[in-house]
Design goal:
Helix content: 10-25%
Oligomer: single chain
CATH class: Mainly Beta
Structural class: mainly beta
Number of helices: 2
Strand order of the largest sheet: 1-3-4-6-7-8-9-10
Order of helices and strands: HEEEEEHEEEEE
């Protein structure tokens, strides 16, 4: 709840004009192909905002809200790897470019900014799509995160269970922000 309140304090003041959009629906998934067992998780509790006039974009993903097929995987993910009590959220803040807010259909777009995961912040450049659907916008992307870049440790004993990198897929539907 604290990360949600912090998100509101930091992001909603940016959303006071007509060109502001806030997440209505979100899906963040990750997939890790490993020798012994693939690992996949889904999170539908992420929050996001977009300012069409400036291209400013921000997302916040609560780490504990990733759901796994197996409860033990979820427990290990939160306690051993992501240390979600210490690092409760992942976030992205940057600029969205290469889109036309009025164009019909899906179009390529690029998000450049800072991604924070596991207490580490790195510059990142993500290609994806931007699509207008009535008065909403859908942002989607698929990209790779390398665990070492964010100091997420893979125990030597489990090296074959956990891949060095994970494929992250995001889709956010953004609606007009209304006070």
């Amino acid at each position: 709840m604290k990360s949600f309140n912090l998100f509101l304090v930091l992001v909603l003041p940016l959303c006071v004009q007509a060109q502001k959009y806030i997440s209505e629906k979100s899906t963040v998934t990750f997939f890790s192909k490993a020798t012994i067992e693939d690992i996949a998780a889904r999170n539908e509790k992420a929050m996001g905002m977009l300012d069409l006039s400036s291209g400013d974009i921000a997302f916040s993903v609560p780490i504990k809200d990733f759901i796994f097929e197996k409860a033990l995987m979820q427990e290990h993910f939160n306690e051993k790897y992501m240390e979600s009590d210490k690092y409760p959220k992942g976030s992205f803040q940057g600029k969205l470019t290469g889109y036309s807010a009025d164009a019909a259909g899906a179009q390529p777009a690029r998000a450049q900014g800072k991604m924070s995961i596991h207490g580490v912040t790195k510059d990142i450049d993500i290609s994806g799509t931007f699509e207008k659907k009535d008065d909403r916008y859908v942002l989607a992307a698929k990209f790779i995160i390398t665990l070492e870049d964010y100091k997420v440790k893979r125990p030597q004993i489990l090296w074959s269970n956990i891949a060095e990198s994970v494929e992250v897929t995001i889709e956010f539907t953004l609606k007009p922000y209304e006070k």
